[in-house]
Each structure stands twice: as structure tokens, then as C-alpha cells.
Predict the 3D structure of the following.
Amino acid sequence: METIYRWLSSLFGSNLAEHLSGWSEVTGDYTEANLFFIIGMSSLIISIAACVTYYYILNHPRWNRGFKWLIFLVIVLIVNFLLAFGICYSDLLAGNISSDISAISVAECLGFGLANIIVSIVIFVFCSLIIKWGSRNCKFSPFKF
Amino acid sequence: MASNKLYIFGIGGTGSRVLKSLTMLLASGVECGVDTIVPIVIDRDMSNHDLTRTKTLIENYIAVNNIAPKEDSQKGYKNRFFNTQIELLNNELCLQLKDNTQKFNEFIGKDTMSSENKALVDILFSKETLELDMTEGFQGNPNIGSVVLNQFDDSDIFKAFANDFKDGDRIFIISSIFGGTGASGFPLLRKVLQTPNQKDADGQPLANWGLVNKAPIGAISVLPYFNVGAATDNSLVNSDTFIDKSKAALSYYKTEDKKLDTLYYIADTNTTTYEHHKGGDEQKNNAHFVELAAAMSILDFVNPQLQQKNIHRKDDKIESTTYKEFGISANVSEIGFANLEDESQKMLINPLSRFLLFRNYMQFVFEKERKYQPYAHRRFNEDFRKKNSIKKLESLQSSFFTWLREMENQNRRFSPFNLSTNNAFDFVKGDISLITKPKWSDNIRYKNWARVDNELNRQISKTDKALGNESRFLELFYRATESLINFKS
């Protein structure tokens, strides 16, 4: 999970990446909780849950249009953005970031939220492609194959 | 008793209109005790609009029947829409009378008669009758019909009928008793069909005539159920004479006892008055419930479960004629499903409701939803509706709707459906319980047409992939409508 986020570290910078990796100034090692994993798994679960809801629980003949699938995607992106941004920003506000990591700004938190949006798009699209076939009413939404 | 044919002779305008109602019933998938219907219309008025409407309808039916999968539990086909085959002899619906003289006095050759015979003819027939233009039928004159129709056994279709006839096939005759063509044609036709060793005009014996002679034979005689307004031209049709003519014909029909297996009668005292047209393209009577009930008599006659009631024979001889009439539970001016007896409800409710749901879906929903619904994906695309059989299906559905609308606009209205709704499930008037209750979860989630789409998407995987697209379309819609509408008496 961390590897995927590291590919996008240009969006949020290496300092925040260190914090999210669980760097502890006390131990001088990555012994704190790995927030990449927590945020990544949460985003994964939220995206899959939204996908399952769209294709199997809602599974509605009037919701099988591309733009309605897009509504679900946008909701997932907003939730996952807030999750990623919120965790970083709350650490920033609470002073939970190690002093040996250079100062982190709100912009970097927003950048991580953006990175989580990109990850969430990939997860939601990938998940849609895998599970859509079992849906009675939405199997060709949004992909026409 | 399947795999045999019922030959239906529809005589005159009423014959055409009853055949139209029968075609509508068969399109909607009513149970029919034979697998093939062979309609033959006998009418000298070839241009009457009722006949041309029926002809177009039957041609459309045949085109759709050709692609309809037939109910077959071994193959897993459930479709009953267009389940019964309709076959035309020599690809013609109408039995063409070879003589085409226009006036009655020309037909009987009055000009070439001796003066004594001319005087006799003048006693028997009025001047108006002798001058009658027969190209528009007999205009309520059974006396001339009985003279002119005597020649129909020489037509090519009649010969084709004899050639085609097989052991086990049956015959049914539809006629009205209060007009010209039907009243005169029915006893004549019955007599010809039961005359041994019938020969054609060349003196050649007709094929299979022994089988025709002994075939089970039923008939319906339609008594007055409409009036016509005052004539604005030289027409001889006069509805004031309908009752007297019916009485006279009925007294003659007494002689038909034991010559028919089953004779059905139907009439309606609550009549609609139509505009007066002596015939031709302007003779276009709206559909009437009496015609629908008359069509049901045909299905009653071939119902395998009613054979013992309908046919009483010993050694191929008719022991007694069964007489039947049709009635509704109360003398109401608006007939709904609730006014029909159980047997009629069982016959009509599911087929008519399912076919109307199918028509309404095509009318209101299909074009919009086919782009999105999985059942239509890569099967029923924008070119699908341009296919000949689908165009004919939709044309027939449009006629079906018009037929229902016309029956609703009579004095005695047949109005079991709300024809002005665009919604999926409020089109059946009265007891809505015939719509199958969905699972509670489906009931919460799917409303109105979404429930139909959900069912179509569910049923598509149950249809045979080997079927062609048009066939699969019919199978799919039958399955879906059957699942959504299932009246159990």
C-alpha cells in the first residue's frame, strides 16, 4: 500500500511521507502506526463497499447510467479525500508530527488527499470492472463491454 | 388433439371482424386446442374496410408467428405470444368468387331469359334488388346472397381447402344472421361441406371430400348487436329489418339441427348505432365485445377438455347438436373482467393483460431504456426496431390497442383496462391482485417500469442463447410479463 502512495509522493512531499510511514523521533525508527496502510485500507474498504452497494444492493434499472455510477465515484472520492486530508491535518493541528521532520503545511495535507483521490479512482474503477458482471441491472454501467 | 387444423370460414363483414378478434386473442397467447388456424373469408364485398383491416392484421400475425418460439417444455421455451400458427390457403385470405358481375339481374342473366321467366323474376325480386350493385356485398339481402354464393365451391381456395384437409381437422363457420352475406352463406356453406361426392365446376371430385363430410363442424350465428343510421345513399341496408330477418333466419336454422356439432348464438340488445355505409372502404365498424365473445366460441369449440360436451357423435354421425350462448354475470353497460364468468376470466385475463403490458412497454419505455438495460445490450439496438418482423409486431400491437379502444367506445363497453395510463401497473381496472406480488425487497426498490426492466434483466439469462434476436425478444417479454402478471382464478 505504501509503495503505491510513494509513487505519488510528488503530490504531498517526502516529509509527510515519513510521518505517514510511522517515523518516531523517540525510537528513531518507523515504529508509529503506518498511516499509509490505515488510510489505504480504509479507502480500499470504502471504495469496495461503494462498488458493492452500487452493483448489488442498489442494483437498480434506473441507476445503470454512466453518470449515476459517476455520482457513486464522486461520493467515494469525497469521503476518501476527507479521510486522508483529515488524518494528516488533525496530526498537524495536534502537533503529532515528529520535530525532526521538517515542517509540514496544509498544502501537503491537501496533496495527500489528492493522492488518495487518485488511488481511490483506480480502486473503484478496478473493482467495478471485476464485480459488475454479477449485477443484474448494472452490469454494463459505465463500461459498455 | 394438437397438430391438427381448424378451418374457419368467416362469412361477410361480421366474419372478418370476428376473425380480427380471434387474431388478437391468439397474438396475446390464449389457449387454443389446435396448433393451426386456417381462416377463409367469404365476402363479395372485397373492398370493405373490415376485411382489409383483418387481412393486414393476419399478414402481420403470420410474419411474427414465423419468428415466435413456440411453447415447448423440452426446449425450455415458455412463449405463448403468437403461439398458434395461422396459415392461409394459396396465400390468400379471401375466397374469390369467380363470377364478378356487378348487378344481380346480370348475374341471373335476366336479359337472356324468356318473357315468362322474366315475369317470374320480377315477382320474386324487387326492382331495387335486381339493380343492386353486388360489388359491395348483398346489402342485407340474404335472398340474393343465397343465389350468388352457390358458386363458391368452384373457387381455387375451396379446392385448396379440400386438398389440404386431413383426418382430425375441424371446421367452424362464422356468420351474422341479420345481414345479407352471412345469413345466406352459412346454410349454403354447411350444406356444401356435408354434400357427399362434391365436384368442382369441371366435374372433378374434390380431394379428401369424405374427410370434409365427416369432420366435426361448429358455427356461430351472430344475432343483431348493432344498428345503422338512416341511409344517405341508395343503400338497401335497414336496421329496422334486422330483428325480422333474424327471426326468419332462425326459423330456417331449425332445419340445421343435427347437421352441426355445436351451434353458438350471441347477440346484444344494447346496440351502438353506426354510420350508414352500404359497404366498400367506408364499411369500418368499430370492434365490439360481441365479436370478442364470438371469437371465444371458436376457442371453446376446439377446447380439448370440452370435446365431450361439444361433440355428440356415433359412427361419425351427429347424434345431437349442442347449442351454446354467451352471457355476462350482470346486465351492465361497462364490462370489466369481474363481469365475466370464471372460464372466461381464465381464458382472457392473463393473455390480454400480458400483451397489453408488452405493448405499453414498447410504446412508452423501450426506446429510452434499451440503451441502458442489460437485457438489450448488443441485442436489441437501434436497428432492431427496423427489422421487418418487429415492425409487424409493433403494428399488430398498435392494432391491438385500437381494438381495445374501439371496444371501449361502444354503447356496451368492454373496458377492463385503463387505456390512458402511462404507468406499468395501474392499467388493469378493478382487482389489482392479479399483478403478482413482488418480494418485499423488490417492492421497495423497484417501482413502476423499473420493475419491468428488472424482470427483463432477470429473465434474459433464462432465455435460450441459440434463439435469433427477434425470437429471443418475444421469449423474453413473455417470460417477464408472465412473471409480473399471473392471475389465478
Remarks:
- Chain B has 18 helices and 13 strands.
- The radius of gyration of chain B is 24 Å.
- The interface with chain A takes residues 369, 372-374, 377, 445-446, 450, 453-454, 457-458 of chain B (CB under 8 Å).
- Chain B has two domains: 5-102+138-327, 349-484.
